[in-house]
Amino acid sequence: MTMSEKIRVAGYVKLAKLWEKHREEALAYHNKYYEDKFAGSEKYELAGVYIDITGNKQIAKRPEMVRLLNDCRSGKVQCIAAQTKAYLAANMGDFCYMVKLLSGINGGIDLLTEDDDYRIDTVTDFDGQKQALIQMADEFIGLNPEAYNAWKKSVTKACGGKE
User: Fold this and answer.
1) Measured between alpha carbons, how far is 116 from 130 in angstroms, rounded to an integer?
2) What 3-state DSSP class applies to 41?
3) Residue 111: CB partners within 8 Å, gap ≥ 6?
4) Region 117-130: what's the mean pLDDT?
């Protein structure tokens, strides 16, 4: 497999505001973590590491998440890796919204997590996990589509109006 055939993966981390006083150490640690994780991989090429250190839970107000979403839209990133799904979204509603949003970008952006209780790997897609997550998101959004549309509008605005 050549580099151009590898899946371009981005590491994403959302740290609490208290890490701000140890910012440099946190950035170095997480950058090294993802560099080591994907070094020598025949399947993945590390496209970048995105680290938000913020107390803000809203996706649209996380600068590195916004940059990551823009890089997904531009084709730089095909897959997002996070140690836990809690880094991606603060609650199940936002997670469903994120799954739905990512499913519509460039044929779908894959997710990888290392959660002990519920590991996500939509690249391998064991047991149709990718479609099951999209179905779960669609069902959740179906309960209140206006809330999803408002969320998506705020994220799209934060991303510079890019759909």
Assistant:
1) 18
2) coil
3) 79, 80, 81, 82, 85, 88, 99, 102, 120, 121, 122, 133
4) 91
